[in-house]
Each structure stands twice: as structure tokens, then as C-alpha cells.
Amino acid sequence: MSRTARAVGIERLYHYEPFNPNYLADLLTNNRIHCSDLAALNDPWDCRPWFDASALDDSNAIEELIQWFFSFAPTAPVSDAQIRATQSEIRTNPEYRRGILERFSEDFLKMILNRWRIYCVTPIPDSTLMWSHYAENHRGICLEFSVDDPIFGFAQEVTYLSSYPKWAPHSLMSTGQPPVLLTKSDDWEYEREYRIIGLAEGVGRPIGLQHPLILSGNFLRLSKGALRAVIAGCEADHEKIRATVQGIDPSLMVKRAVRMRSKYRLAIIE
Fold it and tell me: Which one of 13, 146, 153, 269 is least enclosed by Cβ atoms within 10 Å?
């Protein structure tokens, strides 16, 4: 089970993005955040599991797959003899198992892309790399959110691994929210990412989902006060960002990232 930001004791979470006055005005006016389509993520392995026959490396794993596979009602009439024949093929024929896993991989990719949306945050507001990668080379902004807000308090920690997991369909689908949504290569570990995971509009709530968040379009509604500050990048047009914010919400704090003079570090100042 992934840890939540609140359980870890984090007080603030941050989201880097380019500065687009219209997008920022929409956030401030409508109190909503735009969640990412999983098909648009910059990591080609992220949220795209591929099942390999090595995941079924013993008879118990194979039996678990068979039990899970045949727990669903068939989409077309099938006889008991056909069921027994298919179960036997899964048990005894590695090539047949590999073909089943290939089809599961393709179907699972489609299911994930259609079902889930994510919003990525981190407890780090002064990462030089993330300002470069996600905030338009330091010309963008970083949004500061309070973990006191339930949505951000239950943001879930991403797990980073050095080797690709042995995913199996029945293990990923044992809960409503598959762990693949929270697993990445350790190449990305510097981001210390947490994720808010929401259901795409029109998708039914899967059994086992602890805190279902239902999107409206690609947006997730925030409670008032969740956004605590907007941070302007060290190369950003600070005055334009401040004017955009104060023109809609004069009470919201606007901070800025600045280069430290004697270190390769950023400082966040008010």
C-alpha cells in the first residue's frame, strides 16, 4: 500500500507547470486543477504495464491466474469441456500462456488510459531540474497546495524501482486502483513524486477504491483554500504572474524562486 502525503507528515505539495495566464485564471476562478491523460506522460513505461510469462514462474501463480480469469462471466456461451480444455492449456502450454498475457497487456493498456487521470505533485519547490523540465526552463510557475486539504492529504507516494516488476493481471486487478499507477523507474526518483488519482468522467467506481475522485471533463474540483501560493520561476515575468493572481484573488500569496549567489541552488522567497 502506497503511503499518503499526510501519513508521511508532509505539509505542502507543489505542482510545476508553464505559465499560461488563461490556465492560471481558470484555476483561480473555477477552483479546479487539470489532470493528465495517461497517454501523454513523458515516461514511456509510466502506467503502461506489460505482462511477461516470467510472472507466472510457479504453479501457484498459474492457478491464481486461472482462478481470476474464470471468475468473470464469459461474453459468449462456453461449455464446461471448453473451460477445462482452456485451463489445461494454461497450465501446460507456455506458448499459450504467453499469448494470453500478450492479449491482457494490450487490453489493460486501453483500460488504464480510458479509466484514470492523475495530477502529479512533489514536496520539493526548489528543484532545478523540475523547474527546467516542467516549468518552461524556469519561466513558468509552481503551485503550492496545503496537505490539510483532503485531496492533497491523500496524494499517494510513487514507488521507484531499479528493475521492471513482474506484473501479473490478477495481481494488478486485485484492487480497484492498480499499483502500476504508482510505480516508476528509479531514473525519476529525484522527483519524489506523489499522485492524486482520479476516475475519468463516466467511469464507474471500482470496488476497493478508498477515496474515489471523480473528474468533470479533465478537471478535479478543489476545496477553497487548497491553493496556498503561486511561485514564479527565477526567469519568469514575476510582475505579470503577480498581476494575473491579484486580479482574481488578491489574498493569494505570490512567491518567487531566485538563484542563490554562491551555490547551485534556488531559494523560494516571498
Answer: 269
| 257 to 16, 107, 237: CA distances (angstroms) | 12, 44, 12
Q: Where are the domains of the chain?
A: 5-48+113-269
Q: How far is CA 212 from the centre of its chain?
A: 14
Query: What's the grid cell of residue 221?
Result: 474540483
Around Cβ 65, how many Cβ atoms within 10 Å? 23
C-beta atoms surrounding 81 within 10 Å: 8
Quote helix, strand, coil % in the chain, to nearest 5: 35, 25, 40
Its pTM surpasses 0.90: no
- H-helix or E-strand spanning residue 72: none
Query: What is the spatial distance between Cα 29 and Cα 149, in angstroms, rounded to a whole number?
Result: 18
Q: What is the pLDDT along the chain (270 residues), one digit of tens a residue?
A: 679 999 999 999 999 999 999 999 999 999 999 999 888 899 999 988 888 777 777 788 888 888 877 877 777 778 888 888 988 988 888 888 888 888 888 888 888 888 889 999 999 999 999 999 999 999 999 999 999 998 999 999 999 999 988 887 777 765 556 788 999 999 999 999 999 998 887 776 555 554 458 878 889 999 889 999 999 999 999 999 999 999 999 999 999 999 999 999 999 999
